[in-house]
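Crash report, auto-generated. Payload:
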Amino acid sequence: MKPWEAYYRSVTPYVPGEQPQGARLIKLNTNENPYPPAPGVARALKELDASALRKYPDPAASELTAALAGYHGLAPEQIFVGVGSDDVLGMAFLTFFNSGKPVLFPDVTYSFYPVWAELFGVPYETVPLDESFQIRPEDYARENGGVLFPNPNAPTGCYLPLEQVEAILRLNRDVAVIVDEAYIDFGGTSARELLDRYENLLVVRTFSKSRSLAGMRIGYAMGAPSLIRAMQNVKYSYNSYTMDLPSIRLGVESIKDEAYFRETVGRITATRERAKERFRGLGFVCTDSMANFLFVRHEKVPAEELFEVLREQQIYVRHFRGPRVSDYLRVTVGTEEEMEALFQFLGSYVSRR
Ligand code: PMP
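Recovered output after restart:
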């Protein structure tokens, strides 16, 4: 080892789903949207003038912030934008979780949470979901340095009704409570409705799933102005220009086209409901996912085997190792045709086993 290598920061990084290349493959492994972004996004992309890139972008991304504020009926001071919701969540960890007390999040959840905790030196405790993968609000009644959970949860897709989200907030009035709503557009009621009553609530969203813009990297948070100001202070202490010019322009275009947004989200949720039935018909156990993915386990065939044979067919799904989840596959909802190809193969494979 070289002497300076002894001083490298040692971390175990988050492992994103693979991004295989190729025209024929069916990619159901990273919860991307199978439909393109709104037509106005494509137009705005074509109209982008390369010479405009000479200048730094607006550090406050005011156009995008204003568009989001208008969309959600909030003041611009209640919106924080970032490079995907991963950036927003990372900033939130840095900003809010400094009490030295453990932050609470579910044992089965987005696997980036413990990575940020380790990176930023935030102590944490995981709270077990019940046997049907549900969050129990009463379990969050212990002393903590903050609470964080996705709703719907990942990778289970399970949704926590708004009354229960509020129950968690009632139990946690003195710490920041973060609801990660990456998948809320596919089902359920947003905690946005609770912002007026809970000044310690931060609701985090992304353009990566329901708005088909994973490649653009746009995420945001909604909360009381004091929370947002605190996050801005941290952001401006790290990188002033998080949002590039294309992200700002295309993000605004996406928000303008509500009809397209509703249509594509509607198509995905309809495909999801049909897919639940198909999976169950083939002998899979399937959570009642409200997200754009399904969390499934076959009664006889191990998940790892299915993962491998699907991969040989160029059908990519996600398999997580680890307690409670390793029997399951997470399958993103694709187009009707993609799902049909998946079920054709699974139908013949599981019947031969
Ligand atoms: N939260 C959850 C629960 C997710 O599954 C993801 C997607 N990996 C994210 C946040 C981050 O998404 P993005 O950075 O693309 O907004």
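Post-recovery validation: Residues 258-281 form the longest helix (24 residues).
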